[in-house]
Amino acid sequence: MTVTVPDDALLQSILRRGVSEVIVEAEFIRMLRSGRPLRLKQGFDPSAPDIHLGHVVGLRKLRQLQDLGHTVVLIVGDWTAQIGDPSERAGTRPMLSAEEVAANAETYLQQFFKIVDRDKTEVRRQTEWFDGFDLGDVIRLTRRFTVAQLLRRDDFAKRYAGEQPIAVTELLYPLLQAYDSVMVRADVEFGGTDQRFNNLLGRELQTMEGQAPQQVFLVSLLVGTDGVQKMSKSLGNYIGVAEPPEEIYGKSMSIPDSLILTYFELLTDVPDAELTEIRRLLETHDVNPMELKQRMARELVAQLYDAGAARSAEERFERTVQRKEPPDSMASIELSFLQPLGGPNSDVVVRPLFSDEVEVNIVKIIVKAKQATSSSDARRLLNQGAIRVGGHQLDGGQMTVPVKPGTIIRVGGRRYIRVEDSDALM
Q1: Three-class HEC string of 319-360
Q2: How far apart are the first and last CA of the chain?
Q3: Quick one: 245-322 is in which CATH superfamily?
Q4: What is the pTM of this model?
Q5: CATH class entry, domain 8-219
Q6: Residue among 331, 344, 359 nearest 425 (CA)
Q7: pLDDT, tens digit, 9 for 90 and up, residues 269-314
């Protein structure tokens, strides 16, 4: 395998852009300059079926190194996912079943390869080594470290001080992740800043096992669309990499102005010189932030799909959000107005009103049309005033509304549902 040694400019880009810390930086530089192909470990717990732009920050860095000839070793954490990394959690979380983890892993891999090169990636599953573990192996692994060492991890320390429960399985999590590094003989492990403790433990365990210790490459955590907390599906402030282009574009346009430069830096290939100019324009107010967001949104959609998808997403955004026009195509839901209580989707109909009008449960309509992920998601949108029926904005207490054939329901700024008459379609 041919490896390209980065020049000084590229080396600085690798080390500085989107990077929080490299341990040990001097050793990592020496390894890059040696011309030896490196094994770059990245672990993902398939505890949820999707990944978001917060994950993309590290994946882009891996792709940058792949393009130099290095190998990414992707660890599918099908054992640790069943435990769940307790990072930033106030308490023990439920364990996932092996079946749930396996289903999530398949989706994860498809999305992972939107960013990294499949042909330069070695996929390994923890079951390769942990399925053969017995009680003796567990005891030998746990004897390597003390409880005091594990309690130095910030989230464990806080929960212990606050007398909150810490399951023994959670203490095992960083040990299992560290053992992965030994099994794949990782040269470098990548993760967010919240993985610092786990990654350093892998470095320590490798030394105990007689291996050269891995370097630890920590990337910056991406703040979510709310502009406050790190991007997370559980917080609802995320942009998923597998979402439709128009959703990625629209969510990107919703970020606060204070995040524009950060998103350009962490998620795009815009040159550093242009980043400096973008910073100047924002500080001097010599640009409309909307213009920069549009460019950033195009960059993201083109990266995850293609330039054509980016153009279409932008046109849809301009039409539906800026000009408030309904899109040419939208989701639909069919209702029977002749037999409203016995026809298609009668479960959403509350009562008939007139021959061409029925009263429906708006939460059920939105979920049925797949424009909300759950009833709680739909209720949240309703409480936020994000739902309009026939141009009329609903308040949080308005659960039932009248609709006719052709009524348009707007969900948020980008999703629409047209009510269709199932009897007329027959």
Answers
A1: HHHHCCCCCCCCEEEEECCCCCCCCCCHHHEEEEEECCEEEE
A2: 62
A3: Tyrosyl-Transfer RNA Synthetase (1.10.240.10)
A4: 0.77
A5: alpha beta
A6: 344
A7: 999 999 999 999 999 999 999 999 999 999 999 999 999 999 999 9
